[in-house]
Every structure is written in C-alpha cells, then in structure tokens.
Amino acid sequence: MENLVLDEKIIKDLLPQKFGKAGKIWVAVLVAICLVGAYAYYRQLRYGLIVTSMRDYVSWGIYISNFVFFVAISLVGSLITAVFRLAGVKWGSPLTRIAEIIAVAAIIFASLIIIVDMGSPERFYNLFTHGRIQSPIIWDVIVITTYFFISLLLLYYPLLPDIQILLRFKAGTNKRLYAFYNFIGSFWKNTPEQIKLSEKAINILCIAIIPVAFTIHTVTSWLFATTYRPGWDSTNFGAYFIAGAFLVGAGAVVVAMYVFRKAYHLEKYITENHFEKMGRVLVLLAMLYLYFNINEFLTPFFKMKESESAYLNGLFSGDFALLFWFAILTGMIIPTVVLLFKKGRKPLPVFIAGIMIVVGAWFKRYLIVTPTLLHPFLPMHDVPESYHHYFPSWEEWAITMGSLAGALLIITILARIFPIIPIQETITEQHETVE
C-alpha cells in the first residue's frame, strides 16, 4: 500500500504538464525567431549565397561554426546516457532523458545547417549519386546519419515503460496526444521478456554510440585538419574537438537541468547533489579542454612560422583578440574557478557556469572557422577590400538564430509530450531505496 501511494506521487510529479503562460510566451518567441530565420533562408534560396557575407576566401562562415557547435553539443547523449549507464552511475538516471532530448535536437539541426550552407539544397542529392568514399565529407554524412538513428533509439527504448504509464493516466485529456502515445507504445506490456529485450537493446546501443560519437567528432575535425590552412594543419584536432564537445554537452545538460527543475518543480528529483556532481564533471572537462587549447596554440606559437604568425597574432592581440579571450575566459577559465569551490557547485552558480560554457563554446567554434580562412598560406592579391574581412549578414544571423531557436523548440515540445525524468526508472529506484 505504501509503495502504491509512493508510485502515484512520483507519477503525478513527473507526468508532462501543459504549458502555462510563461511556457506559451516562450514557445511563441521561439516560433517567431524560427519564422524570421525561414524568411532569411527564403531570401537566400531566391537570390543565392550572395546575400551572405561569404566570399572566395571565407567560404565557411557562421553556418559551419553553427554546424560544429551542434555536432559538439550532441555528444551529450553518449556522455550522460551511454557512459553513465555503462559505468553504473546511478545518480545520473534523472538526467538521461534530458541528455537524450538535447542530443536528438542538436543532431537534427546539425544536419539541416549543412544543407543551408550548400546554398542550393538539391546539391545534397549529389552526395549520394556522385559521392567519393575518399572524401571526409562522405564520412561525415555516414556517421551523422548513424549517430542520429542511434540517438533516436536511445531516446525511444527507455521511453516505452513510461508510455504505458502515459496511456493509463492521460486517457481523455488530449485525443491526438493519446493517439500518438498509442501509436508508438501500445505494444508495450511490461512483460519480463520485453523488459529483458529492451535492456539488452539499450546496452547494445550504449556500447555502439560511444565509438560512433567519437567518430563523428573526429571526422568533423578531419574536415578542417585535411584542409591545408594555418591553424587547421594539426594532428591534435580530433582529441581537441572531442574534449570540447564533452564540455559543451555537459554544460547544456546543467542549463537544462536547472530550467526544468524550476519550471516543473522537480527539486525532489533533480537535487542539489546532482548539481554538485555535474559541477565536478564540468571542472574536469573544462581543465581537459583547456589543456588541449594550450597544446593547440603553444606549439605553433613557439615555432611561429611566417605562414601562421598573422593568424596567431590576429587571435591573441589582433582583430579577433577580444572574441578569443572572451571565449577562453567565459568558456573555460571562469567556470572552472567558480566550480572549484563548494558554494560554486550550488544549483544557481552551476547554471550560470553552464550558460557561460555554452556561450563560450559557440564563439570558440566561430573562431575555429573564420580567422583561419582570412589568413591563407598564399597572400590575398587583387581582391576587393571586403574579401579581407568577414562579418555575417543579417540573413546569416537570422538563419543561425532560427536554427538555435528550432533546436530549443524541439527540446521544449519533447518535454511537453514526454516525461523529462524517466518515471518507471525513478519508481524502481525508489522501491530499491525503501527496501
């Protein structure tokens, strides 16, 4: 009887809730930003890439920066879901679905932003008809597609027991939503055979997604490292990208943890202990990424080849210096200093540190792309003055902000449809604790 009352309380607390006034305003703002982005993309389709500020030299601008950012943040699915599950980290259970939702939203828009960058979307078809396996671009398409489907399955399989609960408790509340739940999960009967098969499938996916996740970030880094440019001519890029992806992914999770905790009053389930532990994880990852940054810049700075001197000087003390030091301080150093102290690992400071890490990470990706392209090995001759500089046009900003808003909208909608914390898993853990 006591367990039954406890189960009912957990289910009531964790069932997805309708949007209140603040939620509706949030969705409206995101939709408005997406519509502005869609209009900007319409202009790009109509007039071509000339509406952007990309030219012969900076042919990879803010779109590719955004692509690398989305790919990086998607790694959170394998960090929280796969690594924590396989390592038997029990305290990470309430965070797994948050991580899975972020991963799915991010990888969707990583794929879309590449099509936007192509200019003519029909060119995507050529990748399948005329693709060459020697090209890292084809490798990227393959691993991104694979990663997307594994991430989707890692979100879906642990949802099945919760869908059964939703079918029980959401009957009659929303006919369309109920029909959707019925369509995707009515076959689940919670039998021992189904549970055993589901657990086996989840373990296989957790094992599979780790090498795929490492591959997707390594292949993305190779798109840069195999292109002969100052700053990209590095064997360090694979590990450098993976370390940065782990950091920004974990940063995104702590931001989402705090927002959902406040919005849905989940203080009993996402506790201060979770922020304490995630704060420690962030310190470790930030220090690891800082090491790779030092390693990435110190070696070429010491040798100071003529071809790389303009690029490095531009980063450390030139046109990009303000942005560079902002990204380093905001994305790594300040969060590390704050989170080293126990008071800094309380929910609000961890949330602020997470925002700083995510913002710093976005600008860091911008700095990986743009300064390098403005400093080619061969000097620029007989080109317009505008070719020597790059600042995104309003269309580029609108499309970029629209993609970021779109990812947040997917996360918001999924949080409205599905329980943000696994219900059945929480009930099982509570029973084990009581016993």
Biggest β-sheet: count, sense, barrel? none
Distance between the termini: 14 Å
Query: What integer value in Å does the Rg equal?
Result: 23 Å
Order of H and E elements: HHHHHHHHHHHHHHHHH
List the quaternary state of the chains: single chain
Amount of beta strand: under 5%
Helix count from the secondary structure assignment: 17
How much is the average pLDDT?
A: 86
| Overall body shape | globular
How many β strands by DSSP? 0
Percent of residues in helices comes to over 70%
Structural class: mainly alpha
Question: pLDDT under 50 segments (min length 5)?
Answer: none
Description of the structure:
With 435 residues, this protein is mainly alpha-helical. Helices cover 74% and strands 0% of the residues. α4 packs across α11 and α5 runs antiparallel to α16.
